[in-house]
Every structure is written in C-alpha cells, then in structure tokens.
Amino acid sequence: MSAILKTLFNASVLLLASASAQAYQSEMIHNKNGEAVYELRIFGTQDGAYSMDDPVNGARSVFDLDDNAYLKIRGAVSRWAEIVSLKPGYVPAIINVGTVSGQNARAGTNVTPDPDSAGLLYLLLPQAALLNKLDSEQVQLPLAEVVVGRINFETAALRPSQLPLNDRADYAAVIFHEFGHTMGMIGVAQDKWGSDTPYIRPFLTSWAQGLRDDNGNAARPEQAVLCSMCNNAYDPDAFDLRKDQGYFTGQHVQEVLDGAMPGIPVRILSYRRGQPIGVDTDYMGHSELRNSLMSHQSYRNYTNMMEAELASLQDMGLQIDRRNFYGYSVYGDGLTLTSNNGFFARNSEGTAYLPGQYNQATQGVGLHIYGERNTLTQAADLLSAGPGGLGVRVDGSENTLIIPESTRIHAQGWYGRGLQFSYGREHTIVQRGEVRAEGEDGVAALFDFGNNAMGNFADGIGGGDYRGSWLLNDQGDLAPAEFLPLALQGALIKDYHLSGLLSGKKAAIQISRNAQVENINIMQGARIQGDILSDYSTRQGNGKLFVTHVNFGQKADEQGRATLQADPDFRLRYDSNIQGVDNLAVVIAGGESSLNGQHQLHGLRVDAGATLSGNSSYVINPEGNFSNHGTLSPGNSFGQMTIQGDFIQAPEGRVLIEADTRQHDRIEVQGLAQLSGELKLQLQPDWYADGWSLSQNTVFQATQTQGGFDLLTASLNSPSLSVHVNNGGWFVSRQAAAYSPYAGNPNAVAVGRSLEQASTDHQRPLASIYQALDFSSADGSEIGDALNQLSAGAYGAQLAASVRREQLVSEQLRQRPGLGKDGWQTFIQPFGGRYHWQLSSNDVDHRSQTYGVVFGAEHRAAGSDWSLGAHATANEQSLNIDAPYQAKSTLTGLGAGVHALYRADAREGWKGLAQVRMGLEQGKLNRRIAFSDYQANPKSDWTGHTFAAGVQTAYNWPLGEAGSIGPVLALDYLRYSRPGLSEEGDAGSRLQLDSTRAHSLQASLGLAVSQAWELKQGRRLQAEVSASWEQALLGRKQTQYAQFEASPQTGFDGRYARVDNHALALRAGLTLQSSERLRLGVSAGTRLLGNSRADISGNVSLNWAF
C-alpha cells in the first residue's frame, strides 16, 4: 500500500485530454446531509485510461471490479464523505478508480500552490477542493486516482465494524486507507542520488509542514534526510531521523494527545518482528500509532482513523467536526482520572453536544483508551446510535475502566458495541452502570483483537500478521510464548466485575477466538440480557485449555470488585445462552442463580451453599464435568435439566426435586453420573390422594451411574399430609382426622368430617379445596376459618336476618297509633332498623340494615269499637356477614295483609290489635372464600315466602287528667321458607342447599305509659313510652343441610340461630293530632339484653281520616 505524489500538469492540457475519454462508470457519493461530496469514476478494462495524468495513453485497468468491489469502495468513500465538512460552493471532487496486476493498492494525486501562502505551502488537489481553493477548470478534472491490485480481499457483506472481520484483507478498510492519503497524509521526500537517498521535496505539503525530526526540528524544502539505513552523507542541517523518532504535530493533535507523546509518530524505516528491515520509500507518509489503519505496520486492527489522526487532518486545514466521531481519547500512560466527557448528538453548527440525544455518526467512539496502565472512571453518558458506534474502545494494556452506577453507555445502532477491548493484556472492567447494544447485531461487551486489515496470513498484503492473547502468527510462523510482545503475554481481560445492566441483541458478552478472558464475575445487582459467547479455544503449554471462569454470586467489595467470598443474598435469573464449550467454565459461587437456555461449557461447578436452578440443557466438554457441591434444583418451579457429559454429585451436594401429582422436576444425564450426597423431594401444593407415590428413577435418570445417593429425603409443609421414603421413592399419606381437630365450632367440625370421610373419587372434584387445606399454615391455624367459609353459615345468617326483618314489619303495625273517629282513614308509615348480631362461636355474626314502608287503609263503622283494614309493605335489607364467613346479601321484601283494631284510641280499659300478612322475598347472596392460596366467590339468588300473624292486647288505667298506664301483651307468629338452591362460581366450593322452613313464635309482656297535652287551635300532642320483655317460645336453632355441588356425596348439616332467645324492648313515641282528620307520629326503639348489639329502629307515620 502506498501513496504517490504525481507531477503537476497544466490544468487546461488535462481538461482537453479528458474530454476525449469519457467511458467509465460514474457514481456520486453523498454525505448524510444529502450533499454530493465525491464523484467516483470507475474504469473497467474497456473504459480507457484511468490515469489522471494521461487520460489518453495512460494506465488502463487490467481487470474489472466485481459487485463486491463496488460495494466496498462505495462504503469506504461514503465514510470519508461523512467525515469531511464542506464549505459553501463546494464542487464534488472527481476520483478515478482503476485496477493493476500487482498485489498492491495505492492512491495518487497532484499538488497545487496554496494561494494564501505566497508559494510556501502546496495542497493536495482533494485538500484544495475541500478548501474551495481550486479554479473552475481544475474542479472539472480528476483530482486523485485510487488503484487496486489483485489482492485476496474478503467478500463478506459490508458491515460497519470497527474491527476487521475476516482472515483476508478488508476491502473497505484498504480503500479507506488509500483515500486517507488523498486527504493530506502522503510521503514528503524523494530519492535524489539513487536508492535510499531521501531529500525533502522542493515544496512542502501541509503534512510536511507538521513533521518534526528526532530533535523536534521542522522539515525544510530540499533538505537531506538522515536515517540509520539511508545512503545520505551526514549533514548537520539534515532532517535527522537516525533514531526513527519523527512525528507530526499541530494544535489539534496536541489537544488530543494531551502531552502523552510529542506528536503522531512517523517512520522512515520498515520493520518486521520489531526489527528494521529497510527504508520505507513512502517516506513518512503514514501515521505509526500502534496498529493504526493509516500505518505501514504489518498488523493493523482498525478500520477507521483514530482521533489523533482526524486531528492531523484538522491541522492540515480540513474542516472536520471531530467531536462527532470521538467523545474523548486517552493516549497517556499510568493516569488515574475521572472523565466527565460525554458523547451525544451534535448541534447543527457542529460546535456543541446535545446532552441526552443519541449520536448518529457512523463508527463513532464515545471513549478511546489508547494508553497503558490507566484507571479511568467514565462519569458521563456515552450515547451512540450510529452504525458501528462504540461506547468505549480500549487498547494498550493493563487499563482499568470503571463505569459508575449512574453512567449509561449505549451503542444502539447497527453493529454497535457497548464495550470493545481490542488489544493488550490484563485489562480490568468494573461495571455498575448500564451498557446496552440492542441494535441489529449489537454486542454489549466485545473482547476481540479482530483481524489484520491487511490479511492475517501469508497471502495478505505484504504478508500476514495475526495476533491475540498468547498469539502471534507471522506469515504462518507461530512465535513462541517467550518471544511474544509483552502486550500479548497474558489474557486480554483479567477481571470483568459486573453488577450493572448488560444488554446486547446479538450477545451480552462475546469473546473472540483470539482473546483470552480470565474471569467474568457476575454479582448482586447484575442484569444480563443476551447470550454469553466464546469462540476462544487455545491450549496452554501443559496441553490444557485456557478457561474463562464465569462466576455467579461472589460478594462485591465497596469498589464493586469481586471478592473470593460467596454472596448468600445473590439472586439472578438469566434467560439466554452461555456457549463456549472449549473455554467457558461456569461457577455458581453463592446465592441463587437460575440459568435458562442452551449452554455449551467447558465445565460447571455449583459451590457449597449455592443454588443452581432453571430450565437448561448443558453440553459439557469431555475434558471437564458438571459437579454439584451445593444445591441443584431444575426449573423455576417445575423444570428440567439435561446434562450431556459427566456429572458428579459430591457428598455435600444436594439435588432438590419439586413435584406434585401432575408434574415434577427432572434431571437427565447423558453420560456418567457419579452419585453421592442427597436427593430431596419437595412436594408442591396439589391434591394428593392417600398413598400417592413417586420413584427416584422418574426424577433422576442417567445413561450410566456410579454409586448412589447417600440420602433420600422429602419435605412437605402441611398440617394434614405426611411424606415417607420407601424402596427408592416416596409416598404420601393423609391423617384420618386431617381437618376436624382444627374446627372452632360444631358446624365447622361437620364440614371437616365430611371432607375427611370422602372417598378418593369423591375428593377428586374438590381437589382445589383439599389442596388449599393441605397446604395452608403448617400449624393448622388457617383450617378453622376455612371450614367456616366452606360451610353454609352465611345462609344461616341470612335466614336470621330475614326473620328479624319480618318481625320488624309486624312491630310497625303494632306500634301505629289509631284514630278515634268513625269512617275511613289511610296511613303511611316509613320505617328503618339496624342491628349487629354477635353470637356464640357456633353461630354467624352479621350486621343488617332495613328500610321500608307500611301503608294501608281502614274503616270504623258508626258506633262500633272495631276498625278493619288492609295494609301492604315494601322493604329493602342489606346484610354484611362478618369474618370468617365474609359474605354480603341483599333482600327485597314485599307483603300484604289485613288487620283489625279494637278501641285503638281508648285511654281507659281494654284495647287490642290483630294482623295477618303474607309476603315474598327476593334474595341474593355473595360469599367470599379466601384461605391459603384459594379464592372463590360463590353466589346465589332465590325467591322466598313469608307468613306472619299476630295479636296484641292492652289494658289502660287513667293517669291524671290526660294520661294512661297499663300492661301490654303480644304474641307474634312467623313462618319463613326458602327453596333449595345451587350456587354459581368455582366448582370446588359451590354448594347445593336443601330447602328450609323456619317458624318463630314470640311473646312479649310489658308496660306502656302515655300522656297527652292540649295545644292551641285544637291541636293535641301525645307521648308514649313502653318497655316489654320479648321471649322466643319455639326453638331458636335452624338446621340447614348442604353439599358440595361438585361432589354431592360430600355433605354436612349446620345448626344456626334464627332468633334471639329474649330481649328487653324499649320504645318512645310522639303523636301530634294537628286537626280532626290528620295525625302525625314519630317513634324510636331499641332492644337490649339479647344477642343483638346496636339494635335500633324507628318510624314516622301519617294518618288521614276522610
């Protein structure tokens, strides 16, 4: 590869000559802004001369370029079109492309005087074009030619990789290199007195102006050049390169290098294996930064320019937004620094970053570490989304990169790389922050020397050179370890300490075939999305493979570095693949790791105290094994592990198998299983029939076994089940009194016994119920409440509430004041009541609220003491049934009846009332069942019937002029019926209830006192208070039979209270006779000393006579 500075021809002569040769393929190359930057003229064998000097009789292409060549040339030139910035009025530069027969590639151009330098500086024509310093005739001519020989180029698809990807020469990188020469980096001398007698050219280019010799002296026109292998005589005024330590410098270069070196090194000698082999006749036309693409070194693993090299173009006058392609570079050695330099999109002027916005440059680099033994903390975000973008590239050796928790490093574009370590040895990474490369083919952390852009082997350009950890292949000769450069004597990565987020679409971590990594330590806080891949397969001097340890669960120190201690709190679920059968050895060091994927490993070890779970298949290298010293538990509940290779269960190791009646964990060893230690069965919640069993051979299988498990054990967290080990397996038994001993009342006992006595066939439909009971709290504390919820207790409470509601309606009729007037009268009486029933443990506490109205009409004949009438009622009742039953009910009642009053308004002597009523109830009830992990909401609705009859008599003695006092005796009968019903809801707890009929007969005996006052305008106010003792005369309990709908043979009786045994009823009321025809009333009452609490009721009444 070379660059040729051609003789400068008169522009007008070339213009005339070129007009006669127009046969070529032309393609315009645009930048990302859509501006035309270059016109490529590609000459085939039939297209005439490609020579820019002699377009008529000059050199012609000797072979035609294929589609691969077109693609790669276009890609390389497009990169340059993106890098350079254009001045207003720029005319696209014409570049000729041709072919030659040799195994070489080169670029050639001419120079023109810089009109602004008074003849002191000459510019290459492409430089001058970018600076708008060519005249109108010059811009119509070809400004450079790029020539390609018969090189063994790669033919892979074009990728924006920042590493060469193939063994063969990288086509696009070679063209990028050659094109770079036309930007100014070109040889500055020519032989004057024969071979190896270099003198500086009579004119200085911008590259020559920036060159310095070993002593820091600038070059001068026609100055002799001294070097150790040159043939020039000593001259004290010569450009002295006898130490071959020349360099290029300039303001921008110094800004980038920051004192790390005097400038960009250049060389006048050629080297092989570190030794000079002759004079490089391109005479300082290359950058000799280590492994640079723009170098003349035998090994180059870059595909683009480093930042210092872009800075050299700026120093040569080109307009480049360097910060669009590099965020920050470190060329120094032995530094400890914190970088607050971010990498983001640029503003439209190219003068500042736009923090938080993603950089879109092709092959942008957020941070480049070129130097050695540096410790750098990246404290600012690096956000790239351009093709081939890198978050961080690290070369050199022994560098430590620290990524704090708050830092984001993103390379989200196509072929992005979050971290790329590309050269050297014993680097360290401490990652607590976030690294993402989630674009197409993205890799979050890449450890790869890449390939040689010139080709790896002897058929490369100038002979191949291939490198890696412990590897230098020089044209097919492998260098012994002791002769390797120091940078290759060791692992590329010593330690990767990961406790942050690492996410890559193609891979989270990729280790190439040439990069050794010693340890990847995955610690608390780490999250990994994407595969972990390794192609490394290299043997040590003892014949054993180099192994990368992937350690899960080591404890981190305060700096985020792994210690040798296990972290019992470590938890990680990883759902991708770990593949590196000749290299990767996984160690589960502490805590719990769940690996789920297809894994190909050199080996795997579970350390004592650590747990490995997940659903995975493992292919183990025959030189390694899968050993368990801790706990091996397939699945993330139920699952399977398949191990293709040898398995060793250490004496302290344990295999933990989860199982239920339908599924179980399984380990399959396709190889030799050397067994000892423990095999433990952990039964999971399910319905287990009495006598259910599972065999050891069902859960653990191996092609070949040696030894056996020392111990078979089982665990079962159940108050009602037991598991036993017998004959290489396990079986389950249920206690005869599994549930009833935990019941808190006889009704719950009945439910428990019905479940205990059910046969296996009758249990099966209730499997969810049995499972929840069997796997409730091990002390049985949940079973008592569960049995209550499963019972028909809520319906017992509902029946009691319905009876109490109907009693309340009857009370309203008894308490209604009569009107002492012949003829018709109507009445309406809104009422309400509420109570909270708190009973014994065998009954069901509940709260009820009722609102309704009684209305009707009655008639008293003239001279008669009797009033006869009819009435109707409508009411709404809401019922809340307390824990543990947890149910709600709504009850709507309608009724109609007849009644008779005797001397309803008598102040003295006998008075009385009789009533009969029939009614309907529309009921709904929703139960909530929740215990252990069982949830259900059975519900039902029905239409019930009611019948009520009652009599009341009283005797009054006058008290003063307008009062009375006397006893009151009442007897009320009530009949309530509800049909049989079936609930809706979960089949396991859904009940079928038999129809039920309830009878109530209540007697009350009390004392009533009234007092009246005459008011103005003929109005009259009367107050009344009463107290009575209420006593139930029939049994207060009601029996309800219920059965599980899914298992009708499993049923039970329940006995529940339907009425209070007794209560003290207190009532007070006021009645206002506002006219002869109208009477208004209000009353309130409460019941004490019964089972009810907060039992209150009230009404208002209106009577109208006509």
From TrEMBL:
Protein name: Autotransporter outer membrane beta-barrel domain-containing protein
Ranges where the Autotransporter domain occurs: 819-1106
InterPro entries, per database record: Autotransporte_beta (IPR005546), Autotransporte_beta_dom_sf (IPR036709), OM_autotransptr_brl_dom (IPR006315), Pectin_lyase_fold/virulence (IPR011050)
NCBIfam families given in the database record: autotrans_barl (TIGR01414)
Name of one Pfam family that matches: Autotransporter
GO cellular component labels: outer membrane
PROSITE patterns noted in UniProt: AUTOTRANSPORTER
Signal peptide region: 1-23
Keywords from the UniProt entry: Signal
Keyword Signal attached: yes
